[in-house]
UniProtKB/TrEMBL annotation:
GO molecular function, one term: catalytic activity
Keyword check for Endoplasmic reticulum: no
Domain of life: Bacteria
Organism: Streptomyces gardneri
Coiled coil: none
Protein name, UniProt field: Endonuclease/exonuclease/phosphatase domain-containing protein
């Protein structure tokens, strides 16, 4: 094996160590695996198609090793956080299969295995050929702790509304009923379009769909890349606080006072505000022009309490987003 490739592979395998060693961003409210509440969640835009793997003109064996190293880094974070639900966006089908297999019982001696559902938003994305040159589907996935934890027959994929005159690509909401710490919950994952007019259509639709899908008022966990700021009016349909809010959700990182900006909706005495640590930043991507929170973990307010959240430091080589971790306890 070439020395240069060995160095590259070592760097990729160290991604998992970077994720687990830091255990969060250097904020006053830093949440670690040792201090977090028992219910654990991850939302991560993994940039499966647009972020090229550093394989160059390597051999097939080298390409396979690089992909395995990427998956190992992600699985290391799932294990470190002892995640109950993991929501991934911008995921290639070939990428999902590798993660699925790595989290299956056969590979998980002494560790929790995960059940999973997949949803395609695009039948083919050119960048996905780095994961599978034949099947280039692109979409979202939910991973739920425990083999068989996804309730059979409850998976739904709903295409979200679009503005006919706006340039966009198909966006979906993926949902399923899952077992969550001995209870049944509705888990949903989405990736909202970034064009303003389309965002304004899709965010309220997602809120409507999640509420309509809940069985007998069951707990709901909604995650994703919403391509919008917390305080923006588009997010009113999700949050249950702030001017104009009509939603049913709290967000895991809304009580980080380091991120509060004093306003009518966020007075100096506030204990929670529509805010949070950045999940898209210039440190992660050359295409990002400003640092902002656009990735979320929403929990239905009546079911969860003492929410906690952190955006991990940017991990070059894994994605162009920060990984968002959340935790909570049951309210009742």
């Amino acid at each position: 094996m070439r020395a240069s490739f060995r160095a590259l592979l070592a760097a990729l395998f160290s991604i998992g160590l970077l994720l687990t060693a830091g255990t969060g961003s250097a904020q006053a409210d830093e949440v670690t695996p040792e201090t977090a509440k028992p219910l654990r969640f991850i939302s991560y835009n993994v940039c499966g198609a647009k972020c090229p793997l550093p394989v160059g003109t390597g051999t097939e064996a080298e390409k396979t090793a690089v992909k395995a190293a990427w998956v190992s880094g992600l699985v290391a974070e799932v294990d470190t956080w002892d995640s109950d639900l993991v929501m991934l966006q911008e995921l290639c089908y070939g990428q999902w299969k590798l993660i699925r297999d790595a989290l299956a019982p056969a590979q998980r001696a002494g560790k929790a295995s995960y059940d999973t559902v997949w949803g395609s938003s695009l039948a083919s994305a050119s960048g996905c050929d780095q994961w599978d040159p034949v099947d280039r589907r692109f979409g979202l996935a939910i991973f739920s702790k425990g083999q068989g934890s996804v309730v059979p027959g409850t998976r739904t994929v709903t295409f979200l509304p679009e503005v006919p005159t706006a340039p966009t690509e198909d966006r979906i909401l993926l949902c399923a009923q899952t077992a969550l710490d001995g209870r049944t919950a509705r888990a949903c994952n989405t990736h909202i379009d970034f064009h303003d007019a389309t965002t304004a259509l899709q965010v309220p639709k997602v809120a409507e769909l999640v509420e309509a899908a809940r069985q007998d008022g069951e707990p709901a966990v909604l995650a994703g890349d919403f391509n919008q700021l917390p305080e923006h009016a588009d997010m009113n349909a999700l949050y249950n606080h702030g001017t104009g809010s009509t939603g049913r959700f709290q967000e895991v990182d809304e009580n980080d006072k380091e991120e509060f900006t004093v306003s009518v909706d966020c007075p100096e005495t506030a204990v929670r505000c529509r805010s949070g640590e950045e999940t898209a930043s210039t440190a992660c991507s050359a295409h990002t022009t400003e640092n902002s929170k656009i990735d979320y973990l929403f929990l239905s307010y009546e079911w969860f309490k003492t929410v906690q959240g952190d955006a991990l430091p940017c991990t070059s080589g894994l994605s162009d987003h920060h990984l968002l971790r959340g935790a909570a306890a049951w309210e009742k």
